[in-house]
Amino acid sequence: MTICDTYVTLLYSPKVYNNNHLSSSSSRPNFVNRWIWGGLDRGYISNVDINWGDILQITAKLTGKKEFQEVGLLNFNNNELDHWEQLIPNVTHVVLELEYAAKNVTWESLYPEWIDEEEETEVLVCPSLPSLRSPGIRLNLIAVKLPHANGGNWSRDVARLHLQLAVARLTTSFKGNYPLYVPFVTNFFPIPNLFTCRELVGHEGNVFGRKTPPSTRIL
Q: Any idea which GO molecular function terms this record carries (predicted)?
């Protein structure tokens, strides 16, 4: 079963920071302190330790950093945003914001074992997952840090699925004859069928680098 292609438009515009005019940490949207849908959803918080040496190696493999002009960042905290600004300086960093999935969206509701196609017992309602709003500028790189359910089934984690779908859908919104780079920071392999195997151009530690050619940006 596929998830319904219904997404909610975000109410908040992404925050843009240029390295020539760094904003203070207090003005940034700290992921840990964001309160959406009436409370913090800890399922989206990622405690994955980042090895910035691995990030540096992956970004060097992707493009040598010379092509980077606008970098989108999703699900990183304030300290990690500072590291990104130091790692890839003199570019525009865009902090992407994503609404949480509703509390009643579970893996079972997204992928039910049985569907009443004739709707004899109940009317089928397809859950929706919010999508990222377009930042309004062309991004060369979109980095995302994925959570994993501690002691749970990480392969059936709604927050983890949501973040990956949101990034994949955002990549398809960019038109033009240029590649787009998508490094995932995760302790487990990203969803394999969102990007083709040939798009995996680097893997160092818990960093998986993807290079998406224009011809394959179709979702």
A: transferase activity
Q: 105: which strand partners?
A: none
Q: Tell me, what amino acid is at 126?
A: C
Q: Report yes or no: 15 and 94 within 8 Å, Cβ to Cβ.
A: yes
Q: How many CA atoms lie within 13 A of 87 on its CB side?
A: 23
The conformation of residue 198, written as its DSSP 8-state character, comes to G
Q: Determine the CATH number of domain 29-105+122-216.
A: 3.40.50
Q: Label residues 131-158 b or e (16+ Cβ within 10 Å = b).
A: bbbebeeebbbbbbbbbbeeeeeeeebb
In this prediction the pTM is 0.76
Q: Which class for 103: exposed (0-12), middle (13-18), buried (19 or more C-beta within 10 A)?
A: exposed
Q: Torsion over CA of 162, 164, 167 and 170, rounded to 10 degrees?
A: -70
Which of 38-52, 56-70, 152-166 has the least mean pLDDT?
Answer: 56-70
Q: Would you list the DSSP string of 107-145? A: HHHHS-S---TT-SSS---------PPP-SS--SEEEEE
Task: Name the pairing type of β-strands 180-185 and 141-145.
Answer: parallel
